[in-house]
Fold:
Amino acid sequence: MADKFPEIDVPTNGDENLDEDFLAREKEILGDDAEQFKTEQDEEFLRDQEQDEVKQFEEQFPEVSNDQFQKSEELEQQEQEEEEFGEAAFNPPKTESDAVKEWRQRYQLEIQERDEANDKKTKETREQASKELETFYEEYNNKKDDNIEKVRDAEKAFLEKRDAFYTKGNVWSRALDLVKDSKTNPRFKELLEAKSKATST
Structure:
């Protein structure tokens, strides 16, 4: 039977906890009358229990030596100095020196002069572009007017020549004028001349 049902390990402090719980419940039930039933054994038990608790606390939280406390203070002081140094490095002084003020004024003046020069150059470039555009359109319009005038003169000369051609001689003589400078068959030219003379008489 022992092999089938092995012994169960029960923590040793379980009995002490049960005793404490029992005494606490009894004291709560009796209230003020519990003092009448207190014995010397109860005081000894409570004193031993208190000493055990103090011993257990000291084991869990050992006393800190002065050296460790001093090292902790030194470490905190070192961290504080590093933080102050970092803040001083990242936060420049609020008051500027005369050299910095002079440099800042000179830098702002250079920026202002550069901006003014850029604005002036931009204005001059726009004015030059506007003038060149006006000149281009003026020349374009003049050339266009000249071409229109030339076309009109050529048209007028062509019409005058055409009218003069139709008013001179007869149809045969006009036909002869059209072919006399070309490489036409001589026999054809002779025929046109004969027709022109016959019509004119």
